[in-house]
Structures are given as C-alpha cells and as structure tokens.
Specification:
The protein is α+β, with helices and mostly antiparallel strands. The chain is built from three helices and eleven strands.
C-alpha cells in the first residue's frame, strides 16, 4: 500500500515538473515546433524561415529575473548556426511586449503583441510574421489602433483584441514583459 502511494506521489511530482525534470507541458503545435526551458533560457525549434530546415529561437531571460533593468534578447539561429534575427523586450515600460509562436497556413510564425492602455491613451499593436533566410521580417499581418480612450470605441477595441487573440490561441507564449511583469513559456 505504501509503495503504491509513493509511486502515485512520484507520478504527480513528475507530471508537475517538481522533481526538476524540466517542463512536462507540450506546445500546442508539437508537430510544428518544440519548446524547452532550461536554466533561464527558452529554446524553441521551428522552421521560422519556411525553408524546410529547423531554426533555433533562443530567449535568455535568466539575468532579467535578478535585474529587471536587463533586457531580454531573442535570437533566431538558422540551420547553419548563424544569428539571422534578434529582438529585445524589457521590463521597463518602453520595452514592453510579448512574443508568441503560432501557426498560420500550417507554418510557424511569430506573433508580436503590445496592447497598451495608459493615462487615457490606447496604443494597441500586433504583427504576425516569419523570417526570410537572411532574417528579414516577412509580414503576414500588422495592425495598430491608437488614440484617446474616449475617441476609440469599445467595439473597435474588442474587434482588435479578437483578431490578435485568434492568432494567439493557435500558438504558445514564448515571453511577455507586459505591464512590467516577466512571464515565460508555460
């Protein structure tokens, strides 16, 4: 009886990653990309260049956990080992943003989202894109909605949020620093 209880407890601990075995969660599109969180770095393998070869997306957030002024750098390494694209987001207000990996037309892509409302102003922005082999961004869709919150109707805001949410729901959060809070892949 005690052995059975110990095995059940061990199964629960492993299922929740409490034993240090890493994340047990699978990404939504495991057939299109993989994600792993190791010691303050997220590794995502995906064909983000749509050339049939695996690229590596590396997000080092470890230093940002201890020093919130340190920006988070996102690098894309191609199949040759070259860094072809980089982006930075931060905890301080000017660096807010969130990156997702999602799937559009059965191919991996990035979703960058930055929906801000502050001091009576609205500044919503999102961009869905993938990369060329030289690291140039190839836009699938890009939208902005901004203005005084009194001038932007609730319907406009809701329509904007629904549109980007449809892309987000098909993917996985890689990293977010919105409103000064660091949230990593979960």
């Amino acid at each position: 009886m005690q052995l059975k209880r110990a095995v059940s407890l061990l199964s629960i601990l492993l299922a929740f990653g409490i034993m240090g075995c890493g994340r047990m969660t699978s990404p939504k599109n495991a057939d299109m990309y993989s994600i792993e969180d190791k010691n303050g770095t997220i590794y995502c393998i995906a064909d983000i260049t749509h050339d049939g070869k695996s690229d590596q997306i590396i997000i080092n957030y470890g230093e940002t956990v201890t020093d919130t002024q340190t920006p988070i750098k996102i690098d894309v390494i191609d199949s040759n080992g070259d860094t072809i694209w980089s982006a930075i987001i931060g905890i301080p207000h000017a660096g807010w943003g969130e990156y997702y990996i999602s799937v559009v037309d059965k191919k991996p892509c990035f979703v960058f989202n930055c929906p801000e409302e502050s001091q009576g102003q609205i500044a919503y922005y999102y961009k869905i894109f993938y990369l060329s082999n030289d690291g140039s961004e190839i836009d699938i869709e890009e939208k902005r909605l901004s203005g005084n919150e009194k001038d932007v109707s609730q319907n406009e805001r809701n329509d904007f949020k629904k549109k980007v949410q449809a892309y987000i729901d098909k993917g996985d959060l890689l990293v977010s620093t919105m409103y000064g809070e660091l949230i990593i892949w979960k």
